[in-house]
Amino acid sequence: MSDLPLLVSCERDFLVHLVAIPAEARVGDLIEAAASLVVGVHVPDRPLSTVHIRKIDGDAALPIDATVTDAGIEAMDWVHLFFDAAPEGEPVQ
Questions:
Q1: Which of 73, 75, 81, 87 has its CA 20 to 30 A from that of 34?
Q2: Which of 80, 92, 84 shows the shortest CA–CA distance to 14?
């Protein structure tokens, strides 16, 4: 299978990145590849939070163990990285 080009944005970052990922890769692999371009570079690392990903027009996080194609991601889809919400009354890390 060939690589899927995807648009990737991240919470608290204004840039949109182009990331190519193998169609058979897991969603967790996509998160890792995309986060390496943003977390600790454009947005601060939040070591106590987990990074999730969703399609830009969706609300739910994609399952981390699903393959990219099984999660419904197609070439040139826009996906968005986001962090766990801070607990009530706690500052964002």
A1: 87
A2: 80
